[in-house]
Amino acid sequence: MITTEDGVVVGSGDRAFNYYDMKVGKIERIDSYAQPNTQAGQNSSTPVAEWNNYWFEFRHDDGSVSSLDGSRICSVAYAERRGWI
Q1: How far is it, in rounded angstroms, from Cα 80 to Cα 17?
Q2: pLDDT for the residue numbered 49
Q3: pTM (two decimals)
Q4: Taking every pair of C-alpha atoms in the chain, what is the biggest distance, in angstroms?
Q5: Could you tell me the CATH number of the domain that includes residue 42?
Q6: Which pLDDT tens digit goes with each residue over 19-76?
Q7: Are 44 and 61 in contact (CB under 8 A)?
Q8: Where is pLDDT greater, at 46 or 5?
Q9: Residue 20 sits in which domain range?
Q10: Are 53 and 36 in contact (CB under 8 A)?
Q11: SS percent in the chain: helix, strand, coil, step 5
């Protein structure tokens, strides 16, 4: 599972908003190797067992694909409230 920038937990197949590219899409193919979650103050000194940030393939509605992590997406509802979509 992935936690978005606005704190929503999402997984493979869920829709979200990529605010770097300003596009809506869905999460596909989540990497199984965790990375440090810098949003939670983790870094390379944090024990690997505590790492909880995952990169994933994000397919936009226009068919383009990005490689992202949870700090690069937010829920569609949040993006709508902000007027981004």
Answers
A1: 9
A2: 74
A3: 0.77
A4: 39
A5: 2.30.30
A6: 889 999 999 988 766 666 666 676 778 776 766 667 899 999 999 999 887 678 999 9
A7: no
A8: 5
A9: 2-82
A10: yes
A11: 20, 35, 45
Are the CB atoms for 74 and 85 separated by under 8 Å? Answer: no
Alpha helix segments (H runs only) across 1-85 = 76-82
pLDDT in tens, 60-79: 999 999 988 767 899 999 99
How many folded domains does the chain comprise?
A: 1
Q: How far is CA 19 from the centre of its chain?
A: 10
With beta carbons less than 8 A apart as the criterion, state whether 38 and 22 touch. no
DSSP state of 35: B
Residues in the chain: 85
The residue behind tokens 């869905």 is 26
